[in-house]
Amino acid sequence: MTINLTIVGQLIALVMFVLFCMKYVWPPLTAAMQARQKALADGLQKAAAAERQLEEASSAASEELDEAKKQAAELIAQASRRANQIVEEAKNAAVEEANRIKAGAQAEIEQEVNRAREALRSKVSDLAIEGAEKILEKSVDRDAHQDMLHKLAAQL
Hints:
The chain starts with a helix and ends with a helix. By secondary structure, the protein is mainly α. It has helices at residues 5-136, 146-155. Helix 1 crosses helix 2 (146-155). The protein has one domain (29-155). It is rod-shaped, with a radius of gyration of 60 Å.
């Protein structure tokens, strides 16, 4: 194989092309690749930071949710205690009302019993007078013997 001038010319053109590319083409390409690489690295860092923030926000939200659940449970417990207290107060009020009604009824019953006793005493005294009149076959003066009849009614 012979090296002729064409090959030498092509070799010189290739070397000049490589030198031209190394001086003018490669630096902007490498700079663009480095900028792209830096942008990707920054994006990855920002993504990692955003992921950490998301985890922190998620844990904070979880803590807030747990706190809200505790507060809700406490409110429910307080409401339950208050409801039980209201029920007990209502029971006590009902018992007091029942006792008051019972006492009123008892007083009314005693009044009725006393009225019935008085009515019975007057009937007994009337019957005693009638019985005495029949036994004695003469009239017993009611006004004259009123004290005796009252004593008799009191004994009954």
